[in-house]
Amino acid sequence: MSERFDCKKEPAGLALRLTAATRLRSVLAGDNFVALDASDIADSRDRATANRLITTALRRHGQISFIIHALLEKGMPGKSGSFEAVLRLSLAQLIFLPDLGAHSAVFLAVEALKRDKKAQHLSGLMNAVLRRAQANSAKYWSLADDLLIPDTFGDTWVDAYGEDAISSFTDALIAGAPLDLTLRDNDPDLIAALGAMPLMGDSVRIETRDRPVEALPGYAEGRWWVQDAASALPARLLGLEAGARVLDLCAAPGGKTAQLIKSGYAVTALDSDAKRMDRLKTNLDRLGYQAETVTADAATFAPDQGFDGVLLDAPCSATGTFRRHPEVIWHRMASDIAGRVSIQRALLINAFRCLNRGGVLLYCVCSLEPEEGEAQVDWALEQLPDLKLLPIRPDEIGDLAGAVSTKGLLRTHPGLAPGGQEGGMDGFFVARFGRH
């Protein structure tokens, strides 16, 4: 959002509230959440508070919507500028972040609206609604967890993963995601310096940290890269000889590309987005890795020579990332998933075309939706007769009981404990094929 507020002579805490409201408003309009950084709020403590307000509002979105419905008898006012964003931030503070103080939640909300010409006429309504919420806050503390997951996904996920898993999904949504790293080299001293815990393979986890990622030990030297434990699984499953030519489709920002290079493959990394490819190159440079890079459409790319392996991390609904991006489960509709299924099929066809006979194709998505996972496997095996399933074995992925189906398909979700550690993992689906 480009809208700016006049922040001159503002009360303490108002500047961060206005900045947080602007960011939340953009997410409510459909943007992905990007955490505020030093360019948005210079003071690290204020920045942390603002990000905490936004993420709490997003993680508790369903419950806050329930509260708003109860408080606003006539519904959300139309053409109300920042009203909804400010209201959601203030309810997040009042109900779920009482340590930040109830008085400041009400006072700063009213002051924020006074600075917005499109919402200043609603400052009285804001005060009244928040006073009512404050008076009834005790009953809102016990809101049902099933409000946290929209109906769009709730029933599907219960059918696919079971009631117990959904309970762990809501816990993971509220807790957020720890920081997982993939190590360039196994170095116990580095792991200790990071305060990390080993997970599976070369993945480690940092539960809490007191500094930005760029300030952690080993970052500047390129000794690791950020990668969720689930995202690190697919690249380990190619099983090709060192020196094999591997195509990484939809490669940016390059975590899997780095893994493939580390495994000794000759890697071609392809993505259609030039800016994302620049980021991939920057990431590889920091790690001291090299790959051929191509900016092209993965659905139409026609190489001069086929590849021994193709890794396709296809565009998807990304519902498996809700621990880090809680907004995705409120942004996605059934029609969105259907559109992505069509794109995935086009990409699968071209990935198959790029694969040599005897080669290995890995298909993966960071989605919890069966339509983007298991159903795509059935479709691919029917439409591409020369493709056969190469079942993934449980012993290939470490201690993840139940993540591999009897058919040999890998399905992770936030209720699983990688390496026996708490904190869950992203929802990821992986299938392995061979071309004969």
UniProtKB/TrEMBL annotation:
Swiss-Prot/TrEMBL GO biological process terms: methylation
InterPro entries cross-referenced by the UniProt entry: MeTrfase_RsmB-F_NOP2_cat (IPR049560), MeTrfase_RsmB-F_NOP2_dom (IPR001678), NusB-like_sf (IPR035926), NusB_RsmB_TIM44 (IPR006027), RCMT (IPR023267), SAM-dependent_MTases_sf (IPR029063)
Keyword Cytoplasm among record annotations: no
SAM-dependent MTase RsmB/NOP-type domain span: 141-436
Active site: C366
GO molecular function: methyltransferase activity
Keywords: Methyltransferase, RNA-binding, S-adenosyl-L-methionine, Transferase
Positions of S-adenosyl-L-methionine binding: C250, A251, A252, P253, G254, G255, K256, D271, D297, D313
Classification via SUPFAM superfamilies: NusB-like (SSF48013), S-adenosyl-L-methionine-dependent methyltransferases (SSF53335)
Gene3D superfamilies in the cross-refs: NusB-like, Vaccinia Virus protein VP39
Family affiliation: Belongs to the class I-like SAM-binding methyltransferase superfamily. RsmB/NOP family.
Name of the protein in question: RsmB/NOP family class I SAM-dependent RNA methyltransferase
Organism of provenance: Devosia algicola
